[in-house]
Amino acid sequence: MYKQPDAENSLASIRAEIEADYETMVSKHSLPKIFSFHKAKEATAQGMPPEGSYPFKELQQQFFTYILENIHDESDINRAIEIFTAVWNYFPHNDMGKAPVEMLQEVEKAAEQDAVPSPYQNLT
């Protein structure tokens, strides 16, 4: 599982780790070029278009089908799914202008700022 970006773990360093892990996975399992990191990142960038094709979903379906048919070690399958999904979560989408992990951080920060203190927090 990849960490949330913070002061110690920059988004850029997490993205670099994901890319390195992805490239290692491609090499280890001799994945076809259709599943290259570049292709996954490109499909992610297109995000969820309002109409027409949904490139990441299409690539994801092909990827999952391929790994389930060609990788037989359960931990390798789980790791491949984790890495592939991390590309979607940590890399920017053109339709949002940022990555989902960045959107989540913004929502969490706003929630913290708007949080109403519990009337029970100071009771002992």
Spell out the blueprint of helices and strands.
Elements: H1 11-28, H2 37-45, H3 55-70, H4 74-90, H5 100-114
Structural overview:
The chain is mainly α and 124 residues long. Helices cover 60% and strands 0% of the residues. It is built from five helices and no strands. The longest helix is centred in the first third of the chain and has 18 residues, at 11-28. It is globular and about 55 Å long. The chain starts with 10 loop residues before the first helix and ends in a 10-residue tail after the last helix. The relative contact order is 0.14. The mean pLDDT is 90.
In total, the number of domains comes to 1
C-alpha-based Rg, rounded: 18 Å
Strand content: under 5%
How much helix is in the residues? 55-70%
- Average pLDDT, rounded to a whole number, is 90
Q: What is the global morphology? A: globular
Largest sheet: none
Q: What's the SSE pattern?
A: HHHHH
What's the N-to-C terminus distance?
37 Å
Number of strands: 0
Low-confidence stretches are none
Helix count, DSSP H or I runs of 4 or more residues: 5
